[in-house]
Amino acid sequence: MNKIQQLEKLRRIRKIAKLLDTAIGIPGTKFRIGLDPILGLIPGGGDLVGAAISAYMIYLATSFGLEKSKVNQMIKNIAIETTVGFVPIFGDLFDAYFKANIRNLDILEQHLAQTDELKEIQKDASASIAYDQSLAG
What we know:
There is one protein chain. This protein is mostly helical. The protein has one domain (about 5-130). Helices cover about 70% and strands about 5% of the residues. The chain has a two-stranded antiparallel sheet. Helix 4 (about 70-85) packs antiparallel against helix 6 (about 100-115). The protein is globular, with a radius of gyration of 17 Å.
């Protein structure tokens, strides 16, 4: 996978995390919620739909060479949020505060920062775009 593909994958992971955990601002506050606690309001399968989307995000993140312990922590975050999410009302409030996907994004970005891979991906992607004449308008 080249650096542009890695950057696109990282952008996709960020979009998913923000959509599920911080997409909607609560007026008059600095607090934000995402679709995850809203999906949790759907009886029966809402939390499972959120967990499936979160699992896809973890799947994408594994292509960055995360250590097994970090992948396990990401899975644990989703498992906690999903399990507690099954409890009516309390689970939805927990989803709004716990923000497992943002936690998992932080794990990935810390991994990339430790390996300096994030800067390298961004630098190489910018250079590739600058030299690609097909992108000139």
